[in-house]
Each structure stands twice: as C-alpha cells, then as structure tokens.
Amino acid sequence: MKEGLNVYGDPLSPCSCTPMTGYFRDGYCKTDASDFGRHVICAEVTEAFLEYTKNQGNDLSTPLPEYGFKGLSPGDRWCLCAQRWKEAWEAGCAPLVVLSSCEESSLDVVPMEVLELYAVTTTY
Asked: Which Gene3D superfamilies does this UniProt record tie to the protein (predicted)?
C-alpha cells in the first residue's frame, strides 16, 4: 500500500507502536476503502476522552487480552476515527492531536484550523 500524506502534505509520520495503533495495526493513521471508520487522526488520549468514547459505545480503556489489546491509558497515542474526534471536540473533550501523524483525509472531516488548536507541542 502506498504511504499516505499528512495534513501538511508531507509523508505521514508514525503515530504509535506502543501501543500498536492504526487501522492496519502498523503504527500509522492511514486508511483505505475498507476502513469505514476512517482511523486517520493521531490523538494523545485523555481520561475525559476515554470516558466520552466509552459512553458512546467504544470502550478503549478496558483490556481485551483475547485480541492482544491492553487498553489505553491517558497519554497513549491512538489513531481515532475522524468523526469520533469531531464529536468529542463538539462535546468539549477532544484530545490533543499529532499533526504530522494525521492523514490528510482527516481534513475532509475536521478543518485544519481546528486541528491546529489541539496540536501536541511536544514529541517523544
């Protein structure tokens, strides 16, 4: 698969390998036609976001060992569905984002000006 571009038009940077994230579980927030959720926003999850998404029916904090999923903790980076991130933003609990790791197609759902307001300013 061709590597995607980020919201700056540059090659997509990895979001996280610990925990391993991405629709393809390769560390990148890239997508294709089979990804109906469009997991293209690299977010640094917070307790508020984890609680919000759990209340929306997508529990990302509870471990599922049968799938090799340890559950997310605040501070973990994870590829989120663009629409879920937008919903969290509208609800006042959107997590920060790593712009170099957000696929350019995320701009079809969330304007760049909004993503820039939530940009992570530190790297690890």
From this structure: Protein of unknown function DUF2237
Q: What are phi and psi of 88, to 5 degrees?
A: -65, -40
Q: How far apart are CA 56 and CA 66, in angstroms?
A: 22
Q: Which residues contact 124 (CB under 8 A, 6 or more apart)?
A: none
Give the separation between CA 30 and CA 119, rounded to whole angstroms.
18
What are the φ/ψ torsions at residue 92 (nearest 5 degrees)? 85, 20
Residue 123 CA, distance from chain mean position: 16
Mean pLDDT of successive 10-residue segments in the chain (124 residues)? 82 94 94 93 97 95 89 96 97 97 97 97 63
- What single-letter amino acid sits at 55? N
